[in-house]
Design a protein that fits this description.
The protein is mainly α and 139 residues long. The protein has helices spanning 3-13, 21-65, 80-88, 92-135. 78% of the residues lie in helices and 0% in strands.
Length: 139
């Protein structure tokens, strides 16, 4: 699922009808379940992508430190951090994989934020009800 699709869904679902607060309150569990399902799937996908990235990193690391995929014939000593920072990280296939991984992390973070808003939604509805009571002189 694309982040844009999730954002569009949340754009529709985040609206609270201030004239129907009781039904809005009843929708919270269904919305929470909907976004929790999406979050779980996307979190699992993120975990899979991280695993794939580690495998790809190892493969590309071996290619970068060797010549044409063969063990290096030299004894040049380069620190692991320097090698990863300057050579392996510059590998095109790793950059593509990292871009996909970063996009997936962004999607998971967005969904965490949506779930947090849903967890607080009942407080927002309660505040709206209390404000109406106060304005009406009942609270």
């Amino acid at each position: 699922m694309k982040i844009e699709d999730i954002m569009e869904m949340w754009g529709e679902d985040s609206h609270i009808d201030d004239k129907d607060l009781d039904n809005e309150s009843l929708k919270i569990p269904n919305l929470h379940q909907k976004y929790l399902d999406i979050y779980s799937k996307e979190k699992r996908k993120l975990s899979d992508l991280k695993t794939q990235w580690k495998v790809l990193f190892q493969q590309r690391w071996e290619v970068v430190i060797s010549k044409n995929g063969r063990p290096p014939e030299h004894n040049i000593r380069i620190s692991k951090s320097e090698l990863e920072k300057h050579y392996v990280a510059a590998d095109e296939s790793l950059q593509k994989a990292e871009k996909i991984l970063n996009e997936q992390e962004g999607k998971v973070d967005y969904l965490k934020s949506v779930l947090s808003m849903l967890e607080n939604r009942s407080f927002h509805i309660n505040n709206a009800i209390n404000w109406r009571k106060f304005v009406a002189g009942l609270g």
